[in-house]
Amino acid sequence: MPERSEADKRGYLNEGFRLFHLKDRLAQRLDYHYHEFDKLILLLHGKVTYVVEGVTYFLQPWDLLLVQHNLIHKPIIDPTEPYERVVVWLGREWMHARSDPEEPLDQCFEIARERGFHLLRGGGEQRLSYMQSIQRLEEALRSREFGGHRLADTLCQQLLIAVNRDILADRTTREETDSYRVDPKIEEILRYITAHLEEPLSVEGLARRFYISRYYLMHRFKAVTGYTVHQYISQKRLLWAAELIRAGTPVMKAAEQTGFAEYSTFLRAFQNTFHMSPREFR
């Protein structure tokens, strides 16, 4: 894994949603990255493995991967076959504006994150339904007829409703253990880190808590996530702080609330990650 101090933020979404239908014959190499929007990835053809927050998914054609905002992920693409996929970027404000109070459209992403499992693999009927939904959405986005934009907006909502229904019905592939690989100990540690970001966290403390050696923790954590323990904790704290600042929390309070002991450390790390000051970010 390449050394780095932070994950890259990739892509900016200025509209409510965007659809990309991409086909690459030369596989590009992508490092770990994250987005401020939610993302659906539908594999159409090719051999690709996706790593999402330490879980490795071995995708098959018509698999659907749900990647929530700020989740760190990376595709590993086999260059022997063309890589074709449909990717839908979904703005959080757009989804919120179109959600009912008890039925948020982004619930599927939240459930996937809580479960620590982000893959939907349906049967023939499900795959046909998703294929038709994507085709109708692509046609509406290309259309210059009356109401084309409104129709595309509605069709994207319908796609999300279908995904939510499948997630709520637990039509996932968790029982197919050959579809993913996870290190149970590292998964447990990742969940603990996420739940305790505001508290002091260190390699030594984590090693003691989970009854493993400091060396094994550092080595295995980097192998599974692509991060050192310190890099991962710092990145997660920064992403949380950014969320708080954007929601109106005072900068110094956000830094303290997300576990930064020194404001100067927070400020330097924030600027290195987002390439602007916290006040400019707001």
Automatic annotation (TrEMBL):
The chain positions of domain HTH araC/xylS-type read 187-282
Alphabetized Pfam families for the sequence:
HTH_18
The protein's matches in InterPro entries, at most eight in alphabetical order, are given as:
Homeodomain-like_sf, HTH-like, HTH_AraC, RmlC-like_jellyroll
Key words of the record: DNA-binding, Transcription, Transcription regulation
- Return one GO MF term: DNA-binding transcription factor activity
Give the source's domain of life in one word: Bacteria
Question: What PANTHER family does the record tag this protein with?
Answer: ARAC-FAMILY TRANSCRIPTIONAL REGULATOR
Name used for this protein in its record:
AraC family transcriptional regulator
**Protein species of origin:** Pusillibacter faecalis
